[in-house]
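Handout, section B. The chain below has 346 residues.
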Amino acid sequence: MSIIDGNQDINISGGDVAQVVTDAQNGNVFAQTLLGVQYLEGQGVKVDFELAKYWLETACQQGHAPAYFNLSEMYLNGLGVPVDIKKAIDLMTKAAEISVELLDKANGVSKSGNSASGSGGARSRSSVASDSSSNSSSSNSSSTNNGSIGSNNVSSEDTDRYAQYAQDAMYALGNIFAKDGEFFNKSKAFYWFEQAAKLEHVAAQYNVAICYKDGFGVEVDDVKAVEWFSKASDNGDSDAQYSLGVRYANGIGVDPDINKAVELFMKSSDQGNASAKYSLGLCYDDGKGVERDRPKAVEYFEEAANMGHPNAQYSLGIAYYGGFGVSKNHDIAKVWFAKAKEQGVT
């Protein structure tokens, strides 16, 4: 996954590669990073890791945070270079530091002042930013540094962009330190997730909640877990909505409120969360937070079961076996019991 500057008039379509090359050769840092990404991902050109590395390193020399980010990804994943996690960490840390310095500058904070605080766009935990502009052509072929240290004209869009650069790099660092291996470090993982979460990175907010829930790199704190689940939930994260619903249902870190739990399960279910669908099935089956409706419970069990949720598969088997909310059918029940058993639920 790559990150490039999303506020620049550079087209990534194949027909404009020649112009991007010209701009890159003339010192345009955005074009240099973009060209590196094009060679990295085969956008309008053949994949060429050597050229990708060259142009990203060239952009790094001008202090362009997205270039550091993408170069780090190359070393992290061994794309045309030997895997080097330490180098990847150093590069990603540089991307975060540059972004924070830019963000501080945009917010009028001096180097000796407070750390950056702002808000960028939401990011799913499955992908890192890819903020390319695709509807205009590059026109500035002179050497520019807008978006690296030394930029003077800062707009609100710039501020949002710098916050996005920072949170993406911070979240990536959190994931590096959270992964088993030589550099596994719970405390550092939590630190970087928290920094990204403060900048409104939604996946990081969810991860911070999990850290407080499980005591990963920080002391267990159910109240703090609820706080961060709530932030991620408000930002639309379905896993956070489900997890927060569980805590309201069971009174963990918050006063029990089954109605609030059902509301959260509904929101999460609407986004396709299998665990939330299963939980709604239980609520309708038992009449908790909703009027008891066993056919409705079966609907939710079946939706979750078809998504591979083992407990839902078992519950659906029970429903068919006993005729609870559905016509009794032992053959269908056996099918669902077998599926659940394959996943260790009996």
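Note. Residues 156-178 form the longest helix (23 residues). Compare this with the example in section A.
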